[in-house]
Amino acid sequence: MFWKVIGMSAAFLTMFSFVPQIAKALKTRSVKDVSLVTLIQMASGVTLWIVYGIYLKDAIIIVANLVTLSTMLVLLNLYRAYRKKG
Fold first, then answer.
1. pLDDT, position 86
2. How does pLDDT run across 8-59, given as a tens digit for each residue?
3. Residue 84's pLDDT is what?
4. What b/e readout covers 13-39, taking b as 16+ CB neighbours within 10 angstroms?
């Protein structure tokens, strides 16, 4: 049970790690401090975690990384939208 709590805690922290950046981008309408390379690298890694989670049939890994990927896709879309304005 202890390790499940550790895993769920790590998943929760990871899932919402990009929300502050999304909030900042929405507030400032700027993504000048966001690294596109980092976003693409992280999105690729998270996608591989999803595949690995499916292989293991581990719901925590799958759901956490799906949520993380979703927030990253929001940030990537903001990057695309706001980068064109700059």
1. 54
2. 898 889 899 999 999 999 999 999 889 999 999 999 999 999 999 999 999 9
3. 75
4. ebbeebeebbeebeeeeebeebeeeeb
User: Residues 60, 8: contact at Cβ < 8 Å?
Assistant: yes
The rounded distance, in Å, linking the Cα atoms of 14 and 61 is 11
Quote the CA–CA distance of 25 and 62 in Å, as a whole number. 27
**Architecture of the domain defined by 2-85:** Up-down Bundle (1.20)
Q: Which two tokens stand for residue 58?
A: 């581990």
Q: How many CB atoms lie within 10 A of CB 68?
A: 23
The domain segmentation of the chain, as residue ranges, is: 2-85
